[in-house]
Amino acid sequence: SVRNSAGARGGDEHRPALLEALAGRRPTRTPVWFMRQAGRSLPEYRVLRAQAGASMLDACLRPELAALATVQPVRRHGVDAAVLFSDIMVPLRLAGVEVRIEPGVGPLLDTPVRDAAQVRRLVSRRYGEAERAGTGADGVALDGAAGVAAVEAAARGVVAELGIPERPADSAPGALSPRARAGLAESRGGAGWTPLLGFGGAPFTLVAYLAEGRPSRDHLAARTLMHADPDAWDRLMTWAAHLTGAFMATQVRAGAAAVQLFDSWAGVLPAADYREKVAPYSALALDVAREAVSPTTGRVAPAIHFATRAGHLLPELHRTGADAVGVDQCADLAQAGRQVGDRPVQGNLDPALLGAPWQVLARGVDACLEAGRAAPGHVFNLGHGVPPHTDPDVLTRVVARVHGSQSWERTA
Ligand code: CP3
After folding, report:
1. Where is it found, in Gene Ontology cellular component terms (predicted)?
2. pLDDT tens by residue, 109-168
3. By alpha-carbon position, which residue is closest to atom 2 of ligand 1?
4. Distance in Å, CA 259 to ligand 1 centroid
5. Which of 35, 47, 101, 308 to mutate to test the pocket of ligand 1 (most atoms within 8 A of CB)?
6. DSSP bridge partners of 68
7. CA-wise closest residue to 322 among 355, 366, 285, 353
């Protein structure tokens, strides 16, 4: 049987498919984007980074580089969303926390935050008030305010490049000609613009890195602090929620039309701990993000809440006030929609399939589309980020297959 008949079918042809799906409607074709679609799988990205010669976090604060890296996968694959080239660690830098990203390893801090005194020192730091947040393209040091301005400029550059809804500014010199715009609209399945997705790390995932100082399997340092010192935990998580919420709000004010909150490590938590000690702060982060209105849509940004290995947390994830829930390949996508209270779902093709023969991958894509039809809206994605060695042509082929299947029909 087909759930989404008549009314929900098609949606508004002129609104991007991503926004239609996040509103619980079924656009003509299922929207698709990939976590980590910008990055090492693209040769043009590797060229860009090598030319810049900047560290990952410095690269995020160079608006032209960041805007280009954001647009690259949209141009190449025809995905339905651009995701800002940045990192969940960027707002920590903008607040003056010494963090760097070690290639092949992940985020590293020299001084982990593990006790009440360290928490007290940390929470006195404010978003955008770092004395030194990074190094600009000219080699000159950027402070926190300049860093925030750089994130804004990057997002605005992407929006200018990927189109905004029809309005007078579109006929300004340098804007797309009507013919170019029509061509782009055609390639986007009718919608004249591609939305920019902003994002932030959920408080728990940020605190997991802060407490451990490096990537970890069980996040024991963070989980110990949670139980050992509830007051310090509350102060730290509240601070992280405001920080990441402000970072998302920056992106929305600069034109991001939707946001994703990444709780990459929430899956290690027992459900009761997640509910009582983590979910309220994720909800706070989303509230802070909703203080911003997107100039692109005139609305607050709908939010996708993503976590890995979080099958046991699905009902909790949607209660944080997210519009849609993103799941990894371990969750049953067909059941996820029901478990999150009939909200739209995002996911969940196993990234491992990207290296399998095409027939195997194609079957996986079709099964994912089929499972997504059980929810009121489906955004096709991987269960986690694009692996660095993925053949980019395979990703382009996946996008074409998703777009080639109508969102409300069963595949044979
Ligand atoms: O396309 C996109 O998704 C681009 C934006 C983006 C990046 N990081 C760019 C990036 C996003 C949304 C993130 C989120 C992020 N960063 C998360 C949450 C998502 C997840 O994967 O669970 C986390 C945990 C981080 C922290 C982080 N940053 C890690 C673990 C790494 C990998 C380190 C490595 O080399 O293995 C990074 C680096 C990073 N962030 C890269 C990119 C494109 C790779 C940098 C490069 O090699 O050029």
Report:
1. cytosol
2. 999 999 999 999 999 999 999 999 999 988 999 999 999 999 999 999 999 999 877 543
3. 36
4. 16
5. 101
6. none
7. 285
Give the residue, out of 32, 33, 36, with the most ligand 1 atoms within 8 A of its beta carbon, to mutate for a pocket test. 36
Q: What is the DSSP string of 329-364?
A: TTS-HHHHHHHTTS--EEEEE-GGGGGS-HHHHHHH
CA of 87 to the centre of ligand 1 (A): 6
Nearest ligand 1 atom to the CA of 35 is 3
Q: Distance, CA 177 to ligand 1 centroid (Å)?
A: 35
Residues with Cβ within 8 Å of 222's Cβ and at least 6 positions away in sequence, in order, are 204, 207, 208, 210, 211, 212
CA distance 119 to 146: 25
Atom of ligand 1 lying closest to residue 199 CA: 12
The residue segments making up the domain with residue 296 are 6-20+48-164+173-342
CATH number for position 284: 3.20.20.210
What is the ipTM metric for this complex? 0.94
Residue at 349 is within a domain = no
Question: Rounded CA gap, 314 and 341, in Å?
Answer: 9
379 in any annotated domain: no
Assigned domain for 53 exists: yes
Indicate whether 231 belongs to any domain.
yes
